Amino acid sequence: FGPNCSIGSEIEDGEFDWQTNNMEIEAGIFVMRHLETYMGMGIDELNCCLAGNTRKLKEQLLFLRKKYSAKIILSECNILKETVLHNASKFGNKPTNVPSMGI
């Protein structure tokens, strides 16, 4: 196997309503959403329900980031789950002076 090897699959490149060139930091969220919604259909039928509108898309990405983070942190496979939950519980009882980051 090498970098130019594919195992009997044809790679398709498609156009999507939500495509953007200025959200590289969100690439992982886009990939995870595609993995979550892909059902074996062709690229023309792929619908991951992401908005084309930038404001709505940002809201969706924020929600998905929280969803995926929670699933990873709370997974039984996470060997640091209890440590993370213990450390997070310390923050729940303290008032914070951090301003809201409304999107």
From TrEMBL:
<protein>
    <submittedName>
        <fullName>Ulp1 protease family, C-terminal catalytic domain-containing protein</fullName>
    </submittedName>
</protein>
<dbReference type="GO" id="GO:0006508">
    <property type="term" value="P:proteolysis"/>
</dbReference>
<dbReference type="GO" id="GO:0008233">
    <property type="term" value="F:peptidase activity"/>
</dbReference>
<keyword id="KW-0378">Hydrolase</keyword>
<keyword id="KW-0645">Protease</keyword>
